[in-house]
Amino acid sequence: MASSVISVQGVTKRYAGHTAVSALSLEVPAGGIFGLLGPNGAGKTTTIRMLLSIITPDEGRVVLFGGAGSGRELSARIGYLPEERGLYPKMRVLDQLAFLGEAKGMSRWDARKRAKVWLERLGLEDWTTRKVSDLSKGMQQKVQFAGALQHDPELVVLDEPFSGLDPVNSQVMRDVVVDVARSGRTVLFSTHIMEHAEKMCSRIAIIARGEKVLDGNLAEVKGQFGKSHVALTFTRNAGAAAGPLADRALVARVDDYGASAEVQLAAGADPEALLKALLAVDVGLSRFEVVEPSLQSIFIARVGADAAHPTARQEA
Amino acid sequence: MNKVFAVIRREFIERVRTKSFLIGTFLVPLLVGAFGYLPQLLARRDTGSKTIVVLDAASGPIGQVVTSRLGADSIGEGEGRKPRFLVVRLPAEGRLEQLRDSVVATIGLQEGPADAADGVLLLTEEAVEGGRISYLGDNAGSFRDMGALERLIGPALREERLQRKQADAAIIAAANVRLDLNSTKVTNGKATGQSGEQTFWLAYIVNLLMYMVLLLYGIQVMSAVIEEKSNRIVEVLVSSMSPFQLLMGKVIGVGASGLVQLGIWGVTGFYITATLASGGTGSGEAGVAADGTAASFSVPVISPELVAVILVFFLLGFFLYAGLYAAIGAMCNTQQEAQQANTPVTMCIGIAMVAVFALMNDPSSSLAKVFSLIPLFAPIVVPVRYAISPLPLAEVLLSVAAMVVGIVGVVWIAARIYRVGILSYGKKPSMKELWRWMRTA
């Protein structure tokens, strides 16, 4: 394997009263999109802050680009979008980006030029001389996005990049992220929205309570969970499905979403037997599909199991 | 270093661009000018001759003497010269009260003859003997008119009393020589051109100025820190530069904008006081001032050394207090919270300002010397002492050294609090937590 862009080695960070990140190790290879997944409070943001040397780990170390130098020293090669978005509200958009560029070590002139290119790309070219406070929230996020990417970094770290965006802007941002990764750069983003990770990431790591639950190539992770999943959609009388789904001979685990559900079949169970059982209870079945486990399902299985059933770990 | 410069420039430009900076920079000198100029303007407007009725109930020629003395005084110069008082004498023996009431009834009426009386002077026998004289008039509140009355009537009555005791004319003249205390400030064994009063004003102004700028720009640094913290922009910045670089950039940026503002205030202040001073001597007020009855405000002499001391101690004091205010800002989440938390720091500046009033009487006392060596107080105490009387260079340098040590200590502590504080949200830290912040590597 090519040398990792990010190598997190046994990192621990404690705060008064609790451990935010505990002996965490991660390898992020060069290129592609890496998803750092976890429920709220799992330690995603703390981990990202340690990557960027905003805070220092109590134990362990972070190696970037395979060599010496902290995130701060290498900041010219790293783009960062923090979870809590922040810009100077009274500052003009272009001045703001020029300043962020200067903070990354660009010359002022260069930073302004690159900022203009990015504002145009994100459809904000008419807003360059407006104050940030005149912009809508979505536009402000785009400005900050431009700030994270304008210095053409080799590594882009995005903390919850799509939260709080409407579907249209969310799509614009995702397209940009995919473009960045396609041009050979490495993107790491954190999220708790599994659909985004599932569509975009080549590798993922799931962390919960400061510890790594699993990591690896997305396809491999899914492979480990087997193909024995069934996606269901009911059009009526969804409650009646509870009986067949509770049959332990057929079903190992259910993620019930109300009008739909994802089911992990019991070892050796036949999908057709489940289909027959469901048809018998008349739930207006509109979808019955044998699928790969969704990331959502894996996430709930692993993180939920960690949280509620400590013994479930050995079964998996 | 380029990053620090980028922070400085951003802080400076964004600050100078704001409306409040423009208003503050240009409105403050205007207001100060207005406060200095308005009383003079109002006083000058009031320049018509006043008509005074002298009700003469005293025996002898004193009534005529007072009347002619009052009539001889004048206001204005050259073309505009006119008598201060138009005086009418009415013999009033035996009917003083009756006449008084009828004159008073005409005073201050909106509609009346143009030469109606403005006031009535009751010249009685007791006034001559006991020195107690009554004046009733619509200008009784005018310092200038009342001062002129005292100045003109006093000697006349004194002469009359002396004459009644058969005093010699030469003795009377000798008794009437006025006292004129002419105080001059002595500096380093040499007499300066500065009067005692001017020295007081200068020290007073320097005191208020230092107090104001330390507070003003210190609080600005605090607000800037909280702004970055509450905007969360600080997180992006400290991923690209160290918190210390950010802190230095902010402090220097705010300080630079402060220096520009101070410079503009200084230049306009000099200009306004200079025009006021020349305007003052050009008008008739000089005549009054020369008489010593209504000394107008005179512009203090400011030496280049004093300007240097003010600038040096402003910069030193600013760095010290900016560090403290930045640390306070880093501990707080909102401006409201910071307003309470900054009280101890703000009080230090206040103590220095109040202490200076006590030190003004004896600026070279040992207490003054001790205050000059305490970094928290020196930025106000030293320039004020210097304004009163220049200190030996060695003493100034000792103060500077004490301040530099103080700044290094404060910045070391402040930077540590700042570094942790800007990323800590939620409850304000306790003293114990602050201690832990300071110890973390």
Question: Compute the gyration radius of chain B: what is it?
Answer: 31 Å
Largest sheet of chain A: 6 strands, mixed
CATH homolog superfamily of the largest domain in chain A? P-loop containing nucleotide triphosphate hydrolases
Biggest sheet features of chain B = 4 strands, mixed
Mean pLDDT of chain B: 79
**Structural domains of chain B: how many:** 2
The number of domains of chain A: 2
> Strands across the major sheet of chain B, in which order?
4-1-5-6
Distance between the termini of chain A: 27 Å
Oligomer: heterodimer
| Overall strand count of chain B | 8
Q: Helix amount of chain A, in percent?
A: 25-40%
Strand order of the largest sheet of chain A: 5-6-7-3-8-9
What does this structure look like?
- The complex is a heterodimer of chains A (316) and B (441).
- Chain A has a 6-stranded mixed beta sheet with strand order 5-6-7-3-8-9, with helices on both faces.
- In chain A, helix 5 links the parallel strand 6 (155-159) and strand 7 (186-191).
- With 316 residues, chain A is α/β, with parallel strands linked by helices.
- Helix content of chain A is 34%, strand content 28%.
- In chain A, helix 2 (93-103) crosses helix 3 (108-121).
- Chain A has 2 domains: 4-217, 3-Layer(aba) Sandwich (Rossmann fold), CATH 3.40.50; 223-315, Alpha-Beta Plaits (2-Layer Sandwich).
- Chain B has 441 residues and is of the alpha/beta class.
- Chain B has 2 domains: 2-37 and 194-439, no CATH class; 49-173, abc type-2 transporter like fold (3-Layer(aba) Sandwich), CATH 3.40.1710.
- Helices cover 67% and strands 7% of the residues of chain B.
- Chain B contains 18 helices and 8 strands.
- Chain B starts with a helix and ends with a helix.
- The model of chain B is unreliable at 280-297 (pLDDT under 50).
- The chains are: A alpha/beta (316), B alpha/beta (441).
